[in-house]
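in:
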C-alpha cells in the first residue's frame, strides 16, 4: 500500500494484515491524534453488518465476531458506519449483500446527517467510493453494500462549505475517505475532541483523499486489534468491518 505522504507523523503499533490489505496506525497532525485503518479495497472485501440471523441488531463488535467465528472468520477491523434511529434502523440508505434495507434520503433533515451535502459509502466488487448523495442519486452506482451518513467532510478535494475554522463544537469523531481510484478506503477516529474543520482537513491535507464522509461523533467506536483496542459502549447500528480467516 502507498505510504501516507506529506505528514509530520507519530506512528505507533503499525501492523499490516495478510496480503498487506489492512494497515492500522496512529498519526499526529496539527495538534490532534488519530487512529487510522487503511484498507486496500481493491484486494480486501469490506462488509456491512446490521442485524444478526434472528433479525436483531448486532449492536456490538463482539456479537459480530461471535457470528463470524461460526464461519471460521474474525474481524480484523471494524467501525460504526452511519447514523441510526433509537431502534438501530439506519437513518439513510443502507444496502447489505445487495439488498436495500433503507432508502436513500435526499431531503434536508435534522442534525449532522442533515448538514447537506451528505453522502454514501458505496462498496462495489472493484473497491470503495464515497459519493455525495445527489451525485449518487444521478449515477446509481452498483453497490453490493452501502451506507449513507453525513455530512460530507471532503467533496472533490474541498472541505464542506459549512465548516468553520474557529468552531467551538468539538467531539471525538469518526469517518471514512476514499481515493479517486477506489482502491484506498481510509477509516479514521480522532483520539480526542476535534472540530469538523480539523477532521475534514486531516482527510484532505494529511491523507490526500478527494472524498470523505462523516460517520458519527460521541458514540464513535473502533475495533482494531492491531492497536490493542475494541471499544465498547452504547449499542451501535450499522457497522463496517473486514472479516478475515480466524487466526490472522
Amino acid at each position: 500500500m502507498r505510504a501516507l505522504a506529506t505528514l509530520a507523523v507519530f506512528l505507533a503499533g503499525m501492523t499490516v494484515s495478510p496480503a498487506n490489505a489492512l494497515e492500522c496506525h496512529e498519526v499526529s497532525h496539527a495538534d490532534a491524534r488519530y487512529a487510522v485503518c487503511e484498507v486496500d479495497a481493491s484486494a480486501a472485501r469490506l462488509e456491512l453488518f446490521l442485524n444478526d440471523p434472528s433479525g436483531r441488531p448486532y449492536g456490538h463488535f463482539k456479537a459480530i465476531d461471535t457470528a463470524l467465528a461460526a464461519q471460521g472468520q474474525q474481524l480484523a477491523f471494524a467501525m460504526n458506519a452511519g447514523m441510526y434511529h433509537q431502534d438501530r434502523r439506519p437513518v439513510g440508505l443502507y444496502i447489505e449483500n445487495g439488498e436495500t434495507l433503507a432508502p436513500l434520503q435526499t431531503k434536508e433533515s435534522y442534525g449532522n446527517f442533515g448538514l447537506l451535502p451528505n453522502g454514501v459509502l458505496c462498496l462495489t466488487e472493484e473497491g470503495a467510493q464515497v459519493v455525495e448523495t445527489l451525485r449518487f442519486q444521478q449515477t446509481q452506482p452498483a453497490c453490493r453494500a452501502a451506507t449513507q451518513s453525513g455530512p460530507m467532510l471532503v467533496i472533490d478535494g474541498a472541505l464542506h462549505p459549512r465548516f468553520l475554522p474557529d468552531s467551538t463544537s468539538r467531539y471525538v469523531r469518526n469517518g471514512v475517505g476514499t481515493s479517486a481510484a477506489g482502491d484506498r478506503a481510509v477509516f479514521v477516529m480522532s483520539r480526542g475532541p476535534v472540530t469538523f474543520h480539523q477532521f475534514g482537513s486531516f482527510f484532505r491535507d494529511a491523507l490526500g483523499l478527494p472524498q470523505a464522509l462523516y460517520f458519527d461523533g460521541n458514540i464513535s467506536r473502533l475495533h482494531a486489534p492491531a492497536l490493542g483496542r475494541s471499544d465498547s459502549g452504547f449499542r451501535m447500528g450499522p457497522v463496517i468491518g473486514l472479516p478475515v480467516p480466524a487466526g490472522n
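note: Residues 1-19 have pLDDT under 50 and may be disordered.
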